[in-house]
Prior knowledge:
2 copies of one chain form a homodimer. Chain A is α/β, with parallel strands linked by helices. Helices cover 31% and strands 27% of the residues of chain A. In chain A, helix 4 (97-111) crosses helix 8. Chain A binds chain B through residues 27, 303, 305, 307, 316, 318, 320-327, 330, 332, 334, 336-343, 346, 349, 353, 356-357, 360-361, 364-365, and chain B through 27, 303, 305, 307, 316, 318, 320-327, 330, 332, 334, 336-343, 346, 349, 353, 356-357, 360-361, 364-365.
Amino acid sequence: MMNTEKEIRSHRYCVIMCGGIGSRFWPYSRTGLPKQFIDFLGTGRSLLQMSYDRIRSVVPAENILVVTNEAYAELVRRQLPDLGDNSILLEPARRNTAPCIAWAAYHIKARDAHASIVVTPSDHLITREESFRDSIVRGFEFVESRDALLTLGIQPTRPETGYGYIQIGDEVEPGINKVKTFTEKPNVELAKVFIDTGEFFWNSGIFLWKADSIIRALHEHAPEIAQVFDRGAGHFGTASERDFIEMEFPGCMSISIDFAVMEKASNVYVETVDFGWSDLGTWSSLYDNSPRNSDGNVTQNCKVMSYDSSGNIFAVRDDKLVVVQGLNDYIVADAGDVLLICPKSEEQDIRNMVSDAKLKFGDTYL
Amino acid sequence: MMNTEKEIRSHRYCVIMCGGIGSRFWPYSRTGLPKQFIDFLGTGRSLLQMSYDRIRSVVPAENILVVTNEAYAELVRRQLPDLGDNSILLEPARRNTAPCIAWAAYHIKARDAHASIVVTPSDHLITREESFRDSIVRGFEFVESRDALLTLGIQPTRPETGYGYIQIGDEVEPGINKVKTFTEKPNVELAKVFIDTGEFFWNSGIFLWKADSIIRALHEHAPEIAQVFDRGAGHFGTASERDFIEMEFPGCMSISIDFAVMEKASNVYVETVDFGWSDLGTWSSLYDNSPRNSDGNVTQNCKVMSYDSSGNIFAVRDDKLVVVQGLNDYIVADAGDVLLICPKSEEQDIRNMVSDAKLKFGDTYL
């Protein structure tokens, strides 16, 4: 018996991960209101809301789950009021992506033994939504037809040193290849070589697989994590799931899914895509992805009067007026109780500033 | 019959002028809270309060008057709760210093025909209070013994181009000379010549005279103004003074006491003084007069973490944390709804920015 399109769609799930704290955008992004909850592009929708909107055309609304930290439960409910409480998984502790993805897979499988899943971060920017949708559908079809772990590789546009790279191996279907290697942040010379070969793609952090496939891979490559969730059998999807997670989740090792599974498994594939992706991981990438004023500045939620000033990014809350003269290529971020002024070229130092602020003032300004 | 010291003191009055709007310190100083009402040095007292405290040891409390704009009546009452309502003269319009000083003189004379008066701005800094007190007492004694208009001339310490200068003529008593010329803001070459001659002093805007003497001088040199207040005879010090002023004050010409009287009269003297004066008229003078952090920055009401940054002045309300890297010799002024960033060396452009902000946004950010 042929499955109808609707039946096929009904087994497709999306897991949106949004537990990060976004410290690289401090103080604009704060522990209390991280990056993914901010309307970064001034569109009226936060990055999380844009992620939700984007996946709605691929996956039924009731199959969209959000995994976040307990601290952000209210923020998620407010920003995504259509989500049922059963669709919000609240992590009692931060344990990186592998335990998060494992929990979501066990949870979904308990509900639907034939589930396939796309896992996506919530804080990325994707500009070509139609191309995104086609890529996700194509990815679902691929993983539903075999035992595969699929990652989306972004066509690189510059020798970026802040991303992970995926080297492609043999093509198995048009646009889908075996993965040859994963490489974490290369230096700029290596990144240039990567680009020139045409074999390397940026690791997007967007994954597709059947619930079955990822659970099998966890058993094989991260058994410590799989064992934790195996003990939860009978709890997932029931009233006792919450208690089980409160008790057991904090005991999981903290590790990314890339290290725990993707770099070890042999059934890993990459779908090469090009849908206008940016991880908005740095002020500079935000600057590059935002519309500029006629004077070459980027403004976030504020009015700017600039004189002899360009190349700046002004991220200022509450519709404030910024008046600036003789300032070029700076980040000016104002979060009400903290004002940061730093050259764009030195933004890697912001992490140290956050550490210093924590040492000096505790959690007050985090 | 000899007058006792107490009797002499009882005829001494002080007029503190505090109607200015302080636009040079925008946006830290705002139309709604001008410079003189701000605790600029973080001492717990505003510049106005410091002016009041300073004169209290020279003049009886009940003889201290404040002249301000109607808009600031509440601010004055809150900051100087000991002032009676009869001691606050509220100007219904801004008309520069001559009408302000004229009104105060007529008002005081109606109360005390033998009054002598010191007139002082409210937004200056004076660091050596004892020397200030001695200078004022000396000035009172001088003007009480003759028909004289006395101005205080500050020993200059640098070829400042933003001040007016007074050239001294013959000495009439130790430390008190006839005035030879008044010169408005000279260029830097001329200012250097002024300093070298030893004959030039900064015009402090602090004046002493008998009420009689200034009223006589107004009749002679600014009869249009004197006529207005002559019509008020019988109103000053009574319940109808307010109505009279509301009706007549706005019709006065707007002119400074320097132009209207001091530069024309022949009985003008200068007492040369040296009591640690600054007009705090510019961000740079505020920087020069404020204690610096170990990194060479000046902070107003905020905490600063600075990296590779010095020579800046941070004037930020509400105990905000400022984190700054790679910024040197800037003004960073944050007033809640406006943030200004401008090189110290270009602060003369701030006036234009205020004008632009008014054109673009009306009075919202003034």
